[in-house]
Amino acid sequence: MKKIIIAIDGHSSCGKSTMAKSLASKIGYTYIDTGAMYRAVTLYALRRGFIQGDSIDEESLRQEMPQIRISFGKDVDGVQYTILNGENVESEIRGMEVSSKVSPISAIGFVREAMTAEQKLMGNGGAVIMDGRDIGTTVFPDAALKIFVTASDEVRAHRRYDEMVQKGQNPVYEDVLKNVRERDYIDSHREVSPLRKADDAIILDNSYMTIPEQDEWLMNQYIKAVSEK
Ligand code: DC
Questions:
Q1: DSSP 159-190
Q2: Staple partner for 39: which of 81, 93, 114, 171, CB 3.0–4.6 Å?
Q3: How confident is the model at residue 229, as a pLDDT?
């Protein structure tokens, strides 16, 4: 069967990675979480002291970009994790500190250029499901299947809140909702590769869908896309 590239873009916390991972494991594709890559750059910048309050020392970050190596590993249960310069940073990149700084970092042109180049290499051979904000518009504009996922702000904040509680964190719901809205705003209004539905993307609003329902929906889209090829 033809190996295609599947681009899944959309708002934050709308279940893109859940559906992408599930389809990838069923059809034997590689899953690439591009949000994790921007989160890892953000963690690096935080650790190096390049982010102080609302100000970012872009010049220092630019100089150190070539030293930032991001990859993915899998644990014994097959669960994927993010590696920053040899260290498993999966848990740290999901906390509130990184979440509250990742949008401004991902709005920086040279950060996007570096990540986009990496992502193109990772997806080169096809058989890849990549999720993010600009995969169908910028990284793989020729992807055979493009999905744009969304859900209401409140539903998304509840999902992120539950995820953080499950991980043993202690979030405040209102802060999570505020963060979801702020990230949407910055992601959609930045100059470089703003979050936007590709003209040929299929929209999925999963506010009132169960996970099995959305998995089935995505599988059907995949089957349709490969049989059209
Ligand atoms: O999917 P996520 O919430 O983990 O993404 C974290 C941030 O990274 C999000 O606020 C926007 C940014 N991002 C991006 O700008 N482009 C991508 N392809 C993926 C994520």
A1: HHHHHHHHTT----HHHHHHHHHHHHHHHHH-
A2: 93
A3: 54
Ligand 1 within 6 A of CB of 82? no
Compute, in angstroms, the gap from residue 133 CA to the centroid of ligand 1.
6
Which CATH number belongs to the domain containing residue 182 in this structure? 3.40.50.300
Q: CA–CA separation, 54 vs 188, rounded Å?
A: 19
Q: For residue range 131-174, what is the model confidence (pLDDT) as tens digits? A: 999 999 999 999 999 999 999 999 999 998 998 899 888 999 99
| Residue of 31, 38, 120, 181 to mutate, ligand 1, most atoms within 8 A of C-beta | 38
H helix or E strand, kind and range, residue 219: helix 211-228
Backbone dihedral angles phi then psi of residue 99, each to the nearest 5 degrees: -60, -35
- For 193-222, write each residue's pLDDT tens digit: 888 999 999 999 999 999 999 999 999 999
Tell me which residue range forms the domain holding 150: 5-227
Q: Which residue in 108, 96, 98, 92 sits closest to 186, CA to CA?
A: 108
Write the Ramachandran bin of 125: left for phi over 0, alpha for psi from -120 to 50, otherwise beta.
alpha
Residues 6+ apart with CB under 8 A from 34: 115, 119, 130, 131, 132, 133, 135, 139
- Give the C-alpha separation, 14 to 85, whole Å: 29
Which pair of tokens denotes residue 212? 């099995």
Closest ligand 1 atom to Cα of 103: 10
CB 140 within 8 A of CB 130: yes
- Radius of gyration over alpha carbons of the chain, in Å? 17
**Residue whose C-alpha is closest to residue 99's, from 29, 43, 48:** 43
